C-alpha cells in the first residue's frame, strides 16, 4: 500500500513538473561577430552542474529506495532477486539494480521533459546544438556515458564527457513566468498529498485489521465451543492467570458428565525437576503435559466444573481500552482459558502459502507419531503416501491449485493403529484451521 502511495506521488509530481516546464523558455544573450549580432544560449555554470549531480543523486536515493522496498515485498520479484543473488552474488544484484534505476531516472526525465528535478530547481535544460530538445539517441548516449567511473566530475573541465560526446548542452532558462524557486512548493504539496493518502490508507488498513481481528475472534470462539461440545478425555484446558500471579495451569479432562466435567489439575508451579532434570522450568510444561499427568494421576488433585461455567469463563468483559475473559477460579485465583488442546494422540498445526499458480499447505505434527495415509484435493509435494509424521519433525507440504479458500480432508494412523480423520479449511483473509472429524 505504501508503494501505491509513492506511485501516486510520483505521478502527481510529474504532472506538476510537466505543467511548470511548459511555461519556460531558453535564456540567450547577444554576441557580436563583426557587424553581425547573434543570439547565443547561455551554458550553465560548473557550480550549478555540481548542484545537479548532488541533488539528482539524492533524489534517486529518495525515490528508488522506496520503490525497491515496495517491489521486494512482491513475492515473485522477491523470489526472482533471491534466485539471481544465489547465482551471481548479492553485491552484483545490488549493482545492477542501482545502474538500472540510475539509467531509468535520467533517460525517462531527460527524454520526456528535457530536465531532471535538479535542473528544474536551477532553471536549466538539456538541449542539442540547435537549442532544441535532443533526440532519443542523444539522450541514451548521454545517459549511458554517466556510468563511466568519475564521469560526474568531468564537467569541471570545459565540457562534461556526457555532454561533449553526445552533442548535448545544459543551458539556462529565462527567469520569466514561474520562478525556479517555486518548484520547491512541490515538496510541501507532495507531503500534504502523501499525508492525506497515508492517512486514508492507514484508516482503511485499521478498519480492515479490526474486521479481520473480529473474524478471527469469532472463528476462535466457534472452535472453542465446538471443542467443548465434543470434548474427550484426551483434551486439556490451558489456563493463564489473569493477574499474572500464578504460572499456567492445565486441566486434564477426566470424567465427562451431561452437565459437568471433572478435571485433574496439573499445576506448573510444582517442582518437577526430579522427573525432568535440573534445567526444567514451568515454561516447558506444555511440552510434557502427558508425562506430568502420568505423575499426578496416582494421587490426583481434581476440580469439577459445570459446562455452563466453562462457557461463561470464555465471555469477554471490560471496556474498549481493556478487555479480558471472565475466567475460572482455581486456588482462589482467576484464570483465563486460552485454549483447549488435544494430547495423547496426533496433534497438528497447519499453515498456508502461495507461489506462482499453486497453494501450499504445511502440516506439522506436535503430538503422537502418525502416518499420513489419505488426502483429498491436495497432493503431497514430496514423496508418495503413506508418509511418516513424527513429533516436531519437518512439516509435510501439500500442494494444490492457487486459492485463498479451501476445504479438504486428511486421514492418519497413529502408533496405536487408531485412524483419525481431519478437516483442513481456510476462509478468505483468515488463517487455515484443522479440525478432527472422527
How far the N terminus sits from the C terminus, by CA atoms, comes to 43 Å
What's the mean pLDDT score? 83
Main sheet summary: 6 strands, antiparallel
Rg calculated over all Cα atoms? 35 Å
Q: Helix coverage percent of residues?
A: 25-40%
Total beta strands: 21
Shape: elongated
Transmembrane segments: 57-76, 88-107, 182-201
Domain RDD: 47-177
Pfam family, one: RDD
Keywords: Membrane, Transmembrane, Transmembrane helix
Give your account of this protein's structure.
With 438 residues, this protein is an alpha+beta fold. The protein contains eleven helices and 21 strands. The strands form six sheets. The chain has a six-stranded antiparallel sheet with strand order 8-7-6-5-12-11. It comes from Flavobacterium ichthyis. Residues 47-177 form the RDD domain. It is a multi-pass membrane protein.
Give a quick set of tags describing it.
single chain; 438 residues; alpha+beta; 6-stranded antiparallel sheet; 5-stranded antiparallel sheet; 38% helix; 28% strand; elongated
Gist?
It is built from eleven helices and 21 strands. It is α+β, with helices and mostly antiparallel strands and 438 residues long.
